[in-house]
Model the fold of this input.
Amino acid sequence: MLQNKLVQAPAGTRLLLSGNEATARAVWEAGARVAAAYPGTPSTEILENLAPFPDIYTEWSVNEKVSLEVAIGASLAGSRSFCAMKHVGMNVASDALMTQTLAGVVGGLVIAIADDVGFSSSQNEQDSRYWGRFGHLPILEPADSEETHAMIKSAFDLSETLNTPVIVRMTTRICHVKALVTVGSRVDRPAAGFKKDPNRWVMVPGAAKRRLPMMLARDIELLRESEASAFNRLEEGSDRRIGFITSGPAYMHVRECYPDMPVLKLGFSHPVPMERVRKLADLVERLVVVEETEPLVELELNAAKLPVPIHGKDILPATDELSPAKLLPAIGALLGEAPAEVEEPPPAVTIAPLFPRPPTMCTACPHLGVFYTLSRVRNIHISGDIGCYTLGAGQPWEALDTTISMGASMGIALGLDKGRGATDANKQIVAVIGDSTFLHMGMQGLLDITYNRGNVTIMLLDNRAVGMTGGQENPGSGRDLQGSETGRVDFPKLVEALGVRKERIRVIDPYQLPDLFKAIREEVKIPEPSVIITDQPCVLIDHYKPRTAFTVIDDKCTGCGNCLDVGCPAILVTRRGKEVKPNGKEVDLAFVKIETAACTGCDLCPKTCAPVAIVPVPESSKGCMSHG
Amino acid sequence: MDEGITNLLVVGIGGLGVMTAAEILAETAISLGFDVKKTEVAGMAQRGGVVSSHVRFGKRVLSPVITQGTADFLIGFEAAESLRWVPHLRPGGVALVNDMRIVPPVVSVGLYEYPDNPVQQIRDLGVTVTAFDAGAVAQELGNAKLVNTVMLGAVADLLPFSADALKSCLLDRFRTRKPKLVALNDTAFETGRRIASSKQNR
Done:
C-alpha cells in the first residue's frame, strides 16, 4: 500500500487532490529544486504537502519576503524554484518581486498566491491579480485542481521562456476544493550554477534602468503568449444573448448555470487576450465579466471600446465568493426574466436565527490565562497582532484593541504611546504578539520601540508554533518543516539584543495567574520598554501532554461565574440563577460543569475559583473516561 | 441544473471528523466511477468554528458548491449545526443528525441561547430526519473518535450507492493508516447502521 499517495503515485494515476496538493505534486514534477513559504490560510498545505517529496529542498521561511528571496536566489543558481503565500504575504514580499521582475530569472520562478476570497481567515480580501499589472508579469488562474496541476507545470516553462517570475493566482475554492487529477512524472532539471553578471543581478540604478526597456518589451511577448495560450479557451454556445468572460472557480459556476452560452475562459488572465475577447464580442449581444473579486478584466474591456455592452460589477458583487446562487438572479434580471423564471431553487425551509459559533481559543490554550489577566488590568490600551491571540478581542475577554498586519502591534503600540491624546494620559500601552509573528515582522518594531525610548509593555506569547494555521514549525519551535531538530531561538537573549534591558525581561508560565498578573501590573508602571515572555506550548502540537482532568464539585460551586471569564470551551453552564447580595444588589449566577473528556488538566480555571469547587477528577472514576 | 448530480452536505464543528467523513464519501463515489468535487469551508475549524463540507458527485461535476435548497442529504454532526444548515436541503431532502450538543463559549457566558430541541425543530419543518446521539454511541464503543464512523454507518443505507462500497472505502483507509482500528471501526459502522435503521422504522 502507498503510505503517501501524493508522493508515491506513479504517473497516470488519478487522485482526489485539493488545489494545494495538486500544486505540490506539480512543483515536484516540474523539476523544481527549491521551495519556500511562510504558513498562511489558504496556502499553508502547499509546502506541507511538498515537504515529503525527494530531490527538492523545502523550508518554512520566517516571512514571505524571505521565502521569495530564497526562491530568487535558487533561480539565479539555475534551479527551478517556487514559493507560496497567502494574498497578504505578497504585500510583504513585493519589495523583492518588484525589482526581480526587472532582472528576470534563470531557473523558472513560480509564485503561488492564494487569495482568501470570502475572508475565511484573513484581515482583508485584496485581489492578487493586480501584481501582474503592477509588476509586468503573467497571471495564471486555475479553475480546479486538475487545471492547477497543469498550470503550475506550465508556469515554470513560461517563466523561463519569457524570463519573468510567474504568479499563479489561487483562491480558497481552488486551494481547498478536492477534485480528480491525473498526476505525471518528474522531469529532472539540474541547475547550471550561478553565473556572475553584475549588470543584471546588482540592481543599482544604472543596471535597473537598462533592464526597464527589456521588461516593457516583455509585455508584448506576454500578450502574444496569452493570445496563443491553450489556457484561454473560447467555448461557443447556441444561446448568444450573453457571452461570458470568466476566470478561476467562477468559470465552474458559469458553466453549471449557463451550459448553452458562449464563454471565454481565461486561464492566462493577464495580459487579457483582447483578440479573443473581440472574437467573443462579435458572436454575442452583450458581454458579462464574471471575476472574483475586483473588476480588473472588466476595466480593461471597458477601455478596449468593444462593440457590445459590457456588464460585470454593475450586476455582480465585488466582494466575497461568487456562486450559482449569486449568478442566477443577477443574470436573470439582466435578461429581463421575471424572478419566477429564474432557476434559483427556493430553500425548502427557513429557520429562526441561531447563535453564532465564532472561532474561539482551544481548551487549555496558554493564551487563555494571558487574556483573562489582561481583561482584569485597568487603564491599558492593547495593540494586538495576527494569530490565535487576535481572538482575545472577542468574548469573554475583550482585551485587544487593534489588529492590522503581521508585526504591527509593535509600531502601533509606539504610535499609541507617542501620539497620546488627553484621554490617554493615564493609560499604559501593552502590545501582544506571538512567537512566529514576532520573528516574521515584529523584531524590527521592537527595535524601533527601544531605539526611540517607547513606553510599551510587550507580551510575547511563545507557544513554539504557528498556531492559527495548525501548529507549523518556526525558528522558535526548534524544529524545521521536515520535523527535524534545529536551533531554537532564545527569546530573552533576542529581545535583550534588540535593546530591552535585562531587568525588564521576564519569562512567566501563563498558567500561573498570580505571577502573570503581578508581572503585568509591575511592568506597565515602569516607563521603559519591557517584555513579558510566556513560555507554554500550543496544545495542538504533538508534544503537548495532557494531565489529569478537572471536575466541578456541584455543592461547592457558588455560581460566581469567574471561571467562565477564562473563556475555556470545556467549561459549561449547567443552570443560571440570581442572588441578592447583602448590599441589596442583585447579581446573576451561573453554575458550571467541566467537560471532562475535553479538559486536559491545565490547572488554569481552579485558580479563578475562590470556593475551591474545581478539583482533579478522583483516581477512582478515571477508568470510565475517554480522551478519544 | 443538476442532472444526475448528488449533493451531500456534511456539517458540524471542528474536531468531530466532518472533513474525514466527507473525504470517505467522496472516495466511495470515485471508486464507483463518478466524477467528484469536494469542498470545505473551515477557515478556523480548529478554533471551534463551523465546518461544512460539500460533496458533489455525478457524471461530470462543475461547481464545487452546493447551492441553498439543493442538498439531497444533510449529514449533521452536531444538533444545532444541523438545524443551521437545514435550509440547504432541497424539498424532500433527507437529514441524518447526531443529536450531540456542543455548547460554545458565547452561549456559556450568556450572550446567546442554545435551542431547546434542534432535532424537533428540524422535524417540525417537515424534513425527514433520522437522529440519535452518535457521540454517546462512540463513547460506549470506547472511543469518542468513532463518532464519524458511526455517522457513516448510519447514513449508509440512505445514500444512492451501496452501504458495502462505503464500508469498504472506510475500512481500506484504516487498513492503510491504522490497521489495528479496522475491527473497531467495522463494529462502529454496523452499530450506526443498525441504530439508524431502527430509528427509521419507528
Notes: Strands of chain B lie at 6-13, 35-41, 50-58, 71-76, 89-98, 128-132. The mean pLDDT of chain B is 91.
